[in-house]
Specification:
The complex is a heterotrimer of chains A (415), B (207) and C (475). Chain A is an alpha/beta fold. Among the domains of chain A are: 152 residues, 3-Layer(aba) Sandwich (Rossmann fold), CATH 3.40.50; 61 residues, no CATH class. Chain A is built from 13 helices and 19 strands. A six-stranded mixed β-sheet of chain A has the order 1-16-15-19-17-18. In chain A, helix 3 runs parallel beside helix 5 and helix 4 packs across helix 7. Chain A starts with 10 loop residues before the first helix and ends with a helix. In chain A, 50% of the residues are buried. Chain B has 207 residues and is mostly helical. Chain B has one domain. Helices cover 66% and strands 4% of the residues of chain B. Chain B has nine helices and two strands. The longest helix of chain B has 31 residues. Chain B is globular, with a radius of gyration of 18 Å. Chain C has three domains: 155 residues, no CATH class; 180 residues, no CATH class; 88 residues. Chain C has a four-stranded antiparallel β-sheet with strand order 2-3-4-5. In chain C, helix 13 runs parallel beside helix 16, helix 16 crosses helix 18 and helix 21 runs parallel beside helix 22. The chains are: A alpha/beta (415), B mainly alpha (207), C alpha+beta (475). Chains A and C meet through strand 17, strand 18 and helix 12 of A and strand 1, helix 1 and helix 18 of C.
Chain lengths: 415, 207, 475
Amino acid sequence: MSGLKLDGKKEMSISSEIVDFSNPSRVYVPLMNGNTICACLTKAGKKVKKGSIIGKREDLDFPILSPVSGTVVDIKKCLYQNGEMVDTVVIANDMKETLVKKNIVSDITKYTKEEFVELLRKCAIKGMGGSDFPTFLKYKGEVEILIVNAVECEPYLTADLMLCKLKAETILDSITAIMKINNIKKCFIAYKENNTIVRDAFMEYIENYNDIVLEPVKNIYPAGWERFLVKKVLGIEYDRFPSEVKVVVNNVSTIYSIYKALKYQRGISKRIVTISGEGFSIPINILVKIGTNISTVIKEIGEYKGENLKFIAGGPMMGNAIGGDNLIVTSALGAVTIISDTEDEINECMGCGRCIKVCPAKICPAFIYKNVNNKEKLKELNPELCVECGLCSYVCPSKLGLRDAVKIAKKKVKE
Amino acid sequence: MKIFKYLFKENPVFVLVLGLCSTLAVTTTFEKSYMMGLVVMIILILSNLIVSLIRKYVNNEIRIPVYIIIISTLVTIIEIFLSRYSKPLYDSFGIYLPLVVVNCIILGRALSYASKHKVINSLKDALKCGIGYLVAISIIGLLREVLGNGTLTLMNDISSLTGYKEVIRIFNGNIFPNKLFLTSGGAFILLGIIIGFINSIKKGKEV
Amino acid sequence: MKFIKENGPHIKSNDSTSKIMTRFLIALTPIICFAIFKNSVIVYSYASKGFIESLHPLFMIIVGALTSFISETLYYKIVLKNDLRTSLYESYRSFGIISGILLALVLPPNIPLWLVSFGSFTGSIIGKMLFGGFGQNIFNPALLGYLFISASYSNLMGSPFNAYELDTIGGATPLSNLMNFNYTGSFENIVSPFGDLFNLFVGNIPGAIGEVSKLLIIISFIYLVITKTIKWIIPTIYVTTVFILTFIISKYIDAGVWYSLFHILSGGLLFGAVFMATDPVTSPLTTIGQILHGLSLGILTVLLRFLTPYPEGVMTSILFMNMLVPLFDKIGIKARNNIRNIIIIVITFILIIIISILNITHKLDKNSSNVSELDSKVNILEVKEDGNKKIYEVTSKGWGLIKADVEVEDKNIKSIIIKDSKDETQWNEIEKNNYIYKVIQNQNNIDKLDAVSGSTYSSNALKNIVKKVKIEEAK
């Protein structure tokens, strides 16, 4: 089976409680959805409430909501998690938490499917496992099976695991509601078999819920990849999207945010973020408002250890080292990893073949690296199947930049 | 050094890399190689002369068969001459003497140059290519025999014709003679080394 | 606080190229020690050779390694125009000494040192540096050096017996002995002259200095597989293919399993499979490519051993398959996309195996029929012995029946005295051409001698006499 067992390093941050830092004085909301630039629907000086629309993704009519109530101070460029400076709405928090509409729904299962999809769109529910994909698109068609992704395969990350530990019953209620509204037959909660914290958290309540099953998967990276999960849990393959086989894969934090949408008819304003790594004195999970500048929180908690540090937005395999620590928390940012740089001796490709053995997408990174300038040969090698998991660069003994080469090849083939 | 420029700028063996079949097959002794070079040079001059003389009367469609008939006639004359006056040389050439008919140099020069230029220019071109080929094949033959066999055959097989026979032994030790150069693989390696050497000299002159 | 900006995975595995090459060298160490023990220590203790002379194998290995390193450094310095420090560093990183050591281990123990240096030099320069340095070569540089040595100076390579073995064993190496018996024969003929299969396994037989101890090679192989250093699929499939093919042949000639085991344990098969064929730069990267590589190597080795006059087939087949590695990789990529793409390849390989086996069995039939044909034409009536001289009284079928006395001394035919040749027509042609003298002169390669035109039957009859007597003497 391709994929590789990595040292998870989950013990560093899993024993701690979640510390609450959800009252920042300023909130920064980037006008981005994933890597798509969104339009701005507000201006400096306007007063906003918690849940007001301040931006919109044009092609999908998908709103960006304000996580606090207060006044819009400015629209300027700030550091986003892909390493670039993007337009950001700066809001001064008046700490009053005034909602646009206060609403509590007693029975969260009483929605029709169309109402459900519209609710997900209005409350700007997005994938919280890092994809930032608008969730309402996934539920538009017919759904038969739901897979809840509590795998969290990146090393150092424990945010989803802590959420499962604290809010297991809420998550199960949310799943039940989703299943009833969408006529879903069965739900699998996938977790890594060595993360016993997830199993213990759900075991308490799982007998009361029919059609929800705990499904352990093997401890390899990238077990949280959508295609991998569908193949492992259900044994079926699809072409481009799981909706072709009537399956929806959702991150467990997204399921929790759907609960907030169903119960209170509003989007989320806070999320759990893991700050971990050998370069930080106190690895910890924190609860922060979306839009917090994380450097202010880090200064309050602890300090950096060591020289030549990398500040990584996300996990060490798929995240980018952004070159500064004033990063803004978005709903897709699950962790911040601080590790020291390693001196790598780069050599020529020696043809060992390990990258080909571990690639989960079954492409050949070594050949793509050797032919990166030859468009004809690249077409036969299918670089567009790459998921950018980073295992090829991880395992290469000559320390070549294989993932970057495949990214360049992807762009070349598209032209 | 105009001579070197004349001989090595467009040398058919070292630069254009044509006609390697007869070059690498018969160069096992120095005598065979310079005799082959003389044969090719004579045929080249005569064929260029004849082709250039009749160039205005030959139709475009039947150029190749006509030129091949001319060249093969010349080769057959030389074959008969050699088989009568120097049978050992004829035997040692074997099949590579008839193969001169399809030697790329002769046919190529006929098609590309002699059929389009005047007689004097065609003769000059044939002389240039022929002497270049003679020098090239002699160098290869010299190196192959001295390094591979340790001898230098100035005249042995055609000694019945000229009355002069000389085979000099140069190396007889352990390092040379080196049997590799007598094989066809060794011939290719030697050719590659010589071409690389000439290219590096050319590159040095350009800079 | 200054942070580093970078793409790409920020954690990397512990393994690196230098560590892999170091583990490879560690795996070679017991084989080097055994080579020195067998060819230096034992020779010094039992045979009468001086101390410095006995250390010859150690010098071979040192000379091989040093020449590779120095020639690569000189190439980096002179041709690529670097300064000395960079050249030394680049040469260290391209691990030329491994190919130098491997070359020294496949050479026979009596080879002169300058020849080892020549092979190492040409292997490194022509086989590796001219193609572009580390990671760019097509051919295994150690094997290319071996090829240059055997193409240029095969008569100077020396015998595969060290001084101790010349005194005790003499004769031929296991594989050339096998060839003398036309690949068929019994356990006593083929294996017993060298002890039994255990001797072949431990390495108490003549051969090149590194390839004889199969036990140590297997231990090194297990170490390399556990530490994930080499591509283990290639040697496994290679040796298994040779075993299965020779097993099928052994069933055809009614020999036991010992025949296949003999083929695996003799020659450079295990050494070449574990250390030469798995060279990471010159072998396929994809899994299916490696399987095809091992399969092709096995088929070609068996074909070369049985159908060609070369007793050993391993080095040539590895060099040949090095050329086909891009093809195997192309098939491997297609198979990784969809395994059904390679059904045609599988069918082709099955056909190749079937055709090879048919060819080999046909040749074995022809050989044995040749021998029996000879037996029907020449008849040995009596052998008279007189010291180390023997006189064979033979009859041989020409036009009629020729009677002759063949005088043999020290396994060489000295004279043939014709007693009766009255039934031969055109016998005067034989006498005019001094054919009996020519037959005795060419007794060691009698097949190359042409018959006298006009008296073919009589000439062949004389040739058959020589062949039969020579076979009798070789027994």
